[in-house]
Amino acid sequence: MAARLSVIVPFYGVEDYIGDCLESIRIQSFDDIEVIAVDDGSPDGSRGVADQFVAKDPRFRVVEQQNQGLGPARNTGVAHAEGEFITFIDSDDLVTVHGFERMLALLDQSGSAFAGGNARRFNNSSGVRQSWSHRIAFNQNRLATHVSEYPPLARDRMVWNKVYRRSFWDEFGYAFPAIRYEDYPVTLAAHLDAVTVDVMADPVYFWRERESGDSITQQAFRYDNLLDRVVSAEMVLGHLDRATLRVRREVLAALAETDLVTIAQAFATVPDSEADRLLALGRRLAEHLGETAVRRTHHFNRIQYEALLSENVDLLRRLAVFRSENGLSGHARGQAHPILPGRMELPYPGLGERGVPRRLYAVPRRQVGLRTTVRSARWHDGALEITATAEIRHVRTGRDSQLTVDFGAGGRWVRLTAERFDAVDSHGDTSYVGFRTTVPHELLAQVAGDAERPGQLRVGLRNGRRFSEDTLKHPTQGSAAWPQGHQVTEDVWAQPTVTSRGQFVVTWLHHPARLSEASVVDGTYQLAVQVNGNPSTADLVFARNRTAPELRWPGTVTQVGDAAVVRFSVPVAAIVEGVEHDDPFLQSNARAVRLAVDADEPETIVWTDGDRSVGAVHGEHLVRLTRSPAARVNLVEGPLRLTAVSVRLEDDGSSLVVTGQRWSDDTDWRPHWRRYLPDSDTHVDLDTEVTLEPGTWQARVPISSLVEVADAGDLAARNVMWSLFEAPQDGPATAVACEPFLHADLPLEFGQHGRRAQVRVDREILHGTVSLAPAESS
Could you tell me the sign of the dihedral formed by the alpha carbons of 477, 480, 486, 491, in that order? Predict the structure, then answer.
């Protein structure tokens, strides 16, 4: 009897990755599958890895063909597939353990033509993050919808995060073209042909990116690659005659933002002998798209579009280099228009030259407003001290500028004092934008007593004739994004946090459940949670996600005056047993830890116990009771790894020292700093002095070794990112994990020889970034 789902995995030259890919398919919770691995004439050892899966699992088989490319290899897989449904997986990517099962469940419920799920990008040096391409199309669950009903689905370019009904696939005779960028023509056609489709917000697919990032600006020029991109775009445009106006707009904007920009950026590296061919290719796509499509994208795209139409190769080169050197990352500061008063222009290449309308260089009015960032948030003697920046973008902040900072909630505002200093602004210049303010404990306690809404900080800045005011926003990495909380009254816990819109606020938790004790004794978590009132029963609830079953553990209640203490003894083995990882790359999962009192709905628990996670080892698993960015208690389970707990400079400033925890002294893993070369998976490891002691480790590197790589004459070396890796006794190196509490002490900034360096945590990975930007002063 045929399997219900056919999984098609073409492969070519992926010996280092295909094993992990096939393993993530093999362990799927839905097991009624056949896996068709298509060997597209792979020149390396990929076939041997695939054959190992065939030998141990009868659901796997290999089909061989001469090298023809990914599209034809997928078509070959479809020809051999026998399932009621089909799905496509790229051989260097991963799938989540419940992905197939959940998409098939949606299709059984809805009868739709196909179902798709969200995607994550991943690599070792940057961890896991939301795929930018899928953030809007898959931002929430939508059952039995259609691209005409939800037009952002028209930007859904990829074929691999979906399960298709085979009868639907055959009815419309889909086939992948023998070109690169073969996904979008098929994906858009399927969206248009389907009666309904299902969309799932939870991730089903992990999309690998190169360790140095997927930059399109530093790739070597390849005309054949760019030609395939244009041919693919033309095939996509051929479907638009049956699309609604809103769908056409989404598709045209997507092609303008991605494909047209890629071709325009190729002028940064195109040889003189190929410039005319590239120009003709760019004009070909630009004329297909038209000005209306480009108008809906970034204004710099419109400048490049006009330069293409005017056939100005010199300007196209300068524009592409400017963009590739991160010229659009906020650093370009507007300048006064030579004639029109009050008008500002961006000093992009081509300003004032013939060929591109000058109006395209105008600074959009929405950009000339207050810009704030929160650099740190820390408690001192019950007061909240905040370090931040404030500027009116594109206007230089002078010493005569006037800054006001107010704190309040519910319409009541109290003026705070602010100390100002020089800091690096959003344009990369050192100017008078930094400030430090303190919210006194007395004010916090007063507001907390009767405020129904979170406390906010309001910043006003008068700079010359301009005045702008807004709430404090945009926390940076470190204590600003992971602030500690504080008990401001007997009844209220004040917890600084960040809203979904980036606002920095102080929330008030009245009588929250608080973790007061946490330890591990003989393989068992011993926990104590303080609660208000007189409960008779209380359960500890470990909730993983919306579909996974909860883990509940009963506690013992002891009354202490008007409050109670609930004690729990939870065996670590019970937590690890039967675990299924939500993340196929990190092989970890996180559970929110909540308290259910007297059968009420579980409430969150605030972390108040110490400044380090409480961990336990069970076999190859590391279980850590820790905190979230909003200081809620979480439980994180994953593979055994080294953990960084502190970062400091030597007293003489000569070395950077990272110390951490060894959860098992049986391992000889050694931490080291690593950076990846631009547009490559090739890495450079820094000589790191490592000291291993029972339960601890230390890694020391000279500051000069970190910063000397930055070179003003080498674009690739102007901004360098180091990541702290660990090397196991056998197997590939992986990034060292970081204590969440380390955020409160970072970023750590220092400089040497005119270079600025910063150590920070991003997605639980410790990074050291080095740039030639000016150092801050405070």
Answer: negative
Tens digit of each residue's pLDDT (9 = 90 or more) over 554-608: 999 998 888 899 999 999 998 888 667 778 888 888 889 999 998 788 999 999 8
Q: For the domain with range 643-771, which CATH number is right: 3.40.720, 2.60.40, 3.10.450, 1.10.390?
A: 2.60.40
Give Cα 604 distance to the centre of its chain.
25
Give this prediction's pTM. Answer: 0.89
Q: How far apart are CA 509 and CA 362, in angstroms?
A: 46
**Positive or negative: CA dihedral 515, 517, 518, 521:** negative
Distance (Å, whole) CA 80 – CA 63: 8
Query: Three-state SS for 163?
Result: strand
User: Phi, psi at residue 611, to the nearest 5°?
Assistant: -125, 30
Q: Which fold has domain 5-208?
A: Spore Coat Polysaccharide Biosynthesis Protein SpsA; Chain A (3.90.550)
Residue of 35, 14, 15 whose CA lies nearest to 24: 35
- 């509940």: which residue's tokens? 552
157-170 exposure pattern, b = at least 16 Cβ within 10 A, e = fewer:
bbbbbbbbbbebbe
Could you read off the pLDDT of 447-504 as tens digits, one per residue? 887 777 899 999 999 998 899 999 999 998 888 999 999 999 988 999 999 998 899 9
- 475: cis peptide before it, omega within 30°? no
Q: Which of 544, 569, 574, 576 is nearest to 555 (CA)?
A: 569
Place of tokens 């110390």: 659
Cα separation, 323 vs 218, whole angstroms: 11
Distances (CA, A) of 466 to 149, 318, 423, 748: 43, 33, 20, 34
